[in-house]
Amino acid sequence: MSTVIAVAGTIAGAGTTTVVTALGTALGEQRRRVALVDATEEGSRIADAIDVDGEGELADALRRGTTPADVQATGPHDVAAFPTDPTTNWGAVRPDAVDTFYESLRERFEFVLIDCGCSMSPARSPWLGHADEVAIVTDPDVAGAVSEPASLSSAFDVPIRGVIANRVPHKEVDDALEAMESVDAPVLGVLPEDATVGAAAESGSSVLRAEPDSPIATCVWKLALRVRETDHDEPVIPPGAAARSNRAAGQETGPEMGEGASGEDDGDPAPGTSEDETTTADDDVAPSTASETGVDDAIEPSDDETTDASSPAEAGFETPDPQPVEPAPDDATPVEPTADPEEPGTEDRGVAEADGDESDADETEMSEPSGDEAEPSATSDGDQNEKGDDEEEESAALSDDEIEAVFQETMQRVKERQETDTDE
Predict the structure, then answer these.
(1) Which of 356, 352, 375 is nearest to 365 (CA)?
(2) How many other C-beta atoms are found inside a 10 Å radius of the C-beta of residue 381?
(3) Could you tell me which CATH number the domain at 3-293 has?
(4) What is the DSSP string of 128-196?
(5) I need a surface site. Which of 30, 61, 238, 343 has the fewest CB within 10 A?
(6) What is the pLDDT of residues 353-376, one digit of tens each?
(7) 8-23 burial string, b = 16+ CB within 10 Å, else e?
(8) pTM of the prediction?
(9) Which tens digits make up the pLDDT trace of 268-278?
(10) Torsions phi, psi of 17, nearest 5?
């Protein structure tokens, strides 16, 4: 089943493009086949918000009657994008061409999100009129302006899926919900004011990849899960915010509510519900594929099973710029050199090497091993190659006093040699 959702704003700057791109990429990461269409008056909105790979001009293709694949681009999370040129003359596009375009998209995608902007001119009204549902984006301060796109939706007999309050400061979530109570439409959610949106736009990525732990990423992830469902019990709100609607319904809430009431995932089911009841409606439904729809050029969903994770962090997202890894410390352990006082050339030996792979101490049966100290054979600068494999095993173990004496003598010689090298 495919759904075409026209996203319309109440005022300029309401944030329809933010909602379309953020919601669309979240649905794409949840293994849904998604198409984003730029039908704004200004054009190029979607291409400004996310990086898209591909060329084509939607309005020209509609006038020529070409297939959508001719102008399809690809955005983050494998979503399909249909950008529009800023100079588009929408008056030259026939209304029935929009309807035909929608029908072709319904055959290939599960969700089609149309960015309609804030003003619906008669030339662009078919984008809303031929949609299956309408989602209205507004600033809570002008919640009364929801009536304008709602009236247009009613005139075309297109049902309203819900209203989304956008760019709401965290401390004003309660006020936003109260303002939305006057709207004669279900409230889908409240999206917070978050600098991650700007950072994602600058990088051309999605909010999920820019900062998966951000409030906006968490909200759009849960909003995508809600859009996939048919019923919406409670609006999605930023993590940690108290839902006024839940308090009005008499549900007990703490200082910070859990996912079942506020959208914050604290790992526990909502009060009064079982763990099974918190599972999404289509947990066991596998995503559709191109072979199932009979369309060869459909966007393939991601192989990662992130469909029903309750947050982007649970889906395995990591921040794109991890902290630099500190270099590993040198694991070589300094060892004390040793020598056999009865063996000629002992006094000319240097400090023993750390690895001790050629150590004669490993072949010697020590009567009293001295803790962690290793006893690799030490060689001088000129004696290493001369001795080679002809060096005989130590005939007897050294006492602790002898080891200490040899060590002190060797270190004194090393110090003198270093001072001589420094003087030279």
Answers:
(1) 375
(2) 9
(3) 3.40.50.300
(4) HHT-SEEEEEE-GGGGGGGHHHHHHHHHTT--EEEEEEEEE-GGGHHHHHHHHTTSSS-EEEEEEP-TH
(5) 343
(6) 444 444 444 444 444 444 444 444
(7) bbbeeebbbbbbbbbb
(8) 0.63
(9) 333 334 444 44
(10) -70, -40
Query: What are the beta bridge partners of residue 114?
Result: 6, 37
Burial (Cβ within 10 Å: 0-12, 13-18, ≥19) of residue 44: middle
Q: In this structure, what token pair is assigned to residue 265?
A: 């995932």
State how far the alpha carbon of 267 is from the alpha carbons of 5, 259, 314, 392, in Å. Answer: 31, 8, 11, 67
Query: What are the residue ranges spanned by the domains of the chain?
Result: 3-293, 346-423
Interhelix angle 196-203/215-228, nearest 10 degrees = 80
Residue written as tokens 């000629």? Answer: 344
Structure-token pair, residue 199: 């950072």
Alpha helix locations (H) across 361-423? 384-387, 400-423
Phi-psi map region of 274: left, alpha, beta (phi>0 left; psi -120 to 50 alpha): beta
Which pairing describes strands 111-117 and 34-38: parallel, antiparallel, or unpaired?
parallel
Closest CA to 161 of 149, 173, 169: 149
Structure tokens at 28: 């794409």
